[in-house]
Amino acid sequence: MTSATVVAGFGRHLLVSTDAGEQMAAVTRGRNARVAVGDRVRITALGAGQVVIESVDTRRNEFKRSDAARSKMIAANLDQAGVVIAPQPPFSEELLLRVLIAAGAEGIPIALVLNKCDLTQARAAIETRMQAYRRLGYRVIECAARADPEGTRAALQPWLAGQRTLLLGESGMGKSTLINCLVPEAGLRTREISEALGSGRHTTTFTRMFELPGAGGGVIIDSPGFQSFGLEHLSVSQRVHAMPEFAPLLGKCRFHNCTHREEPGCAIRAASQDGTVDPIRYRLFVRLTDQSQSQSLARANPRRA
Length: 305
Ligand SMILES: Nc1nc2c(ncn2[C@@H]2O[C@H](COP(=O)(O)OP(=O)(O)O)[C@@H](O)[C@H]2O)c(=O)[nH]1
Ligand SMILES: [Mg+2]
Ligand SMILES: [Zn+2]
Hints:
alpha/beta, CATH 2.40.50.140, 3 domains, 5-stranded mixed beta barrel, two-stranded antiparallel ribbon, 9 helices, 13 strands, 25% strand, globular, binds guanosine-5'-diphosphate, binds magnesium ion
């Protein structure tokens, strides 16, 4: 058996790169085998350029999202992640919160990559929000992938160098433009991957890994843009623990099983009222919990949905 790394994935259709640097199409043994880009796997030959994945090594971490039915792995074994946002069209703070919680719950450091900074007016309008994220300890990296590719590479290089980084983001924020700016042959490589995985697959619907050119090295993983980002795989407690501003307040609510919504004596709600906790993030957190409850109700009793 040989070791390999999964470098592209579209459902059960995968592409692996052996330690000798050879890329091959791969399939999993079972229908339900969970394999993601970034996984270390053991492979055996299946026939002409095809291999089968026999086993997956234990993961250091996995970046997941989920809907009510199941969780989906986006990538595994990451050093860090970056969520691409932009001032125009306006990014969704709720989606941003969801992504930050998903990363925080796995202990994956995540930065905000603020693209399209050439749109100076729109950029100025969100400065207060960016300051709020910086205060929470998130790194905010400003760039303009289309307007200033060279400056963008310079701004991102120190963060990307030597790391395995997952880039994700809501559609329309400029993630594809950013990937093409960082990896000039990404378009060509994507067409090759598309062919290897089976022709006709839409190039933006799979996750793929690219080596970063240049002296600093590093690897970047591009993932499909999303319009929703479910956190059904995380309990309320896991979500709470993934919000850095809540951490110093944990254990200070009147009830030990406080859900931090309507309960009397809730320390987190009180902090959102006096401004110690960002009230926008607090309101989004409450909404997220409400949505999650209505989804589990709908699952328990489909007729009520
Ligand atoms: N003004 C401006 N527009 C950009 C920039 N980067 C990307 N865009 C535009 O934003 C739109 C969405 O870009 P795309 O890369 O397809 O976004 P994706 O959906 O996140 O992959 C396109 O019209 C891009 O030309 C930038 O730095 N500045
Ligand atoms: Mg795109
Ligand atoms: Zn509380």
